[in-house]
């Protein structure tokens, strides 16, 4: 389960979502499913997850000398927690 969550995504927009809608953003593995993400978040942070939304962010092609290099795609998970739950790593960001 530790390979499912890669990193938390901390930005001003994500901080606003965390305050208003109790929704947190994470970068996850491309092959991770919603139930796997839910279990990994619940186990890692000891919280109850209400819902999980995912989206694949398409990477940009980059120039590598003369040829174009392949894009690096990644997956984002928006995790909504149940009322009263919080994740401490996002506090004060």
Explain what this protein looks like in three dimensions.
- The chain is α+β, with helices and mostly antiparallel strands.
- It has a single domain (5-83), classed as 2-Layer Sandwich (Alpha-Beta Plaits), CATH 3.30.70.330.
- 24% of the residues lie in helices and 35% in strands.
- The chain has a four-stranded antiparallel β-sheet. Strands 4-5 form a two-stranded antiparallel ribbon.
- The radius of gyration is 15 Å and the shape is elongated.
- The mean pLDDT is 91.
Write the layout of secondary structure elements.
Layout: E1 5-8, H1 12-21, E2 23-28, H2 34-45, E3 49-57, E4 62-64, E5 67-69, E6 74-81
Number of helices: 2
The parts where pLDDT drops under 50 for at least 5 residues are none
- Biggest sheet: strands side by side, in what order? 1-2-6-3
Q: Describe the global form.
A: elongated
Q: What is the oligomer described by this structure?
A: single chain
Work out the number of β strands: 6
Terminal Cα span: 26 Å
Tell me the CATH topology.
Answer: Alpha-Beta Plaits
The SSE string, one letter per element, is: EHEHEEEE
Q: Please bin the fraction of helical residues.
A: 10-25%
What does the average pLDDT come to?
Answer: 91
User: Which CATH class applies here?
Assistant: Alpha Beta
- Computed Rg: 15 Å
């Amino acid at each position: 389960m530790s390979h499912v969550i890669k990193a938390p995504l901390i930005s001003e927009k994500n901080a606003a979502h965390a305050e208003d809608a109790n929704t947190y953003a994470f970068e996850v593995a491309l092959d991770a499913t919603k139930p796997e993400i839910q279990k990994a978040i619940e186990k890692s942070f000891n919280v109850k997850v209400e819902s999980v939304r995912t989206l694949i962010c398409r990477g940009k092609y980059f120039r590598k000398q003369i040829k174009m290099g392949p894009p690096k795609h990644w997956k984002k998970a928006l995790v909504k927690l149940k009322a009263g739950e919080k994740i401490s790593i996002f506090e004060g960001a």
